[in-house]
Write a structure and sequence with these properties.
Radius of gyration: 15 Å
Strand content: 25-35%
Oligomer: single chain
CATH architecture: 3-Layer(aba) Sandwich
CATH superfamily: Thiolase/Chalcone synthase
Distance between the termini: 39 Å
Shape: globular
Order of helices and strands: EEEHEHHEE
CATH class: Alpha Beta
Length: about 150
């Protein structure tokens, strides 16, 4: 795990517009990632399998809800839990897997800060107009959202 903190500014004239979002949770994995006293325990294989099983379908469901094709997304900024997790999720998007931002070497698993760090480093000063963000982890929960650049 890395260490980072981020803040998100919300205002009346946003640079990015928040589109549809989808969320889910699966309580069946409670023993795979938990604290007991002062100790954090994790079954890495079970956590990996959870992300591999749930995140890509959630992203695809969000795109269907928004009536968008994968190719209309400029960048997929997902939680950088590990390079292997980002890679296995991106494989479900065959010809668009190159659109998944990977920055494990610099961002690392900075928990809830990984997505804002990716946006700041790879999206804000780019030509990206549409991005998908997706976070997953604690409690075997996940959330995916669509952001579009405000052209006004």
């Amino acid at each position: 795990f890395g260490d980072a903190a981020t803040a998100t500014w919300l205002g009346e004239s946003p640079s990015w517009l928040i589109g549809p979002a989808l969320f889910g949770t699966d309580g069946e994995g409670e023993d795979a990632l938990k604290t007991s006293g002062a100790c954090l325990t994790m079954n890495g294989r079970q956590v990996f399998d959870f992300a591999a099983k749930n995140v890509a379908p959630n992203i695809k469901a969000l795109l269907a809800k928004a009536k968008m094709a994968e190719s209309q997304v400029d960048a997929f900024c997902i939680h950088q839990g590990s390079y292997a997790i980002v890679d296995v999720i991106s494989r479900r998007f065959k010809e668009n897997r190159h659109r998944f931002v990977r920055d494990i070497e610099n961002t690392g698993n900075t928990v809830s800060s990984s997505i804002p760090l990716l946006i700041e480093k790879h999206v804000l000063k780019s030509d990206c107009k549409t991005i998908v963000i997706s976070g997953f982890g604690v409690g075997f929960s996940w959330g995916t959202g669509l952001l579009t650049r405000n052209e006004n």
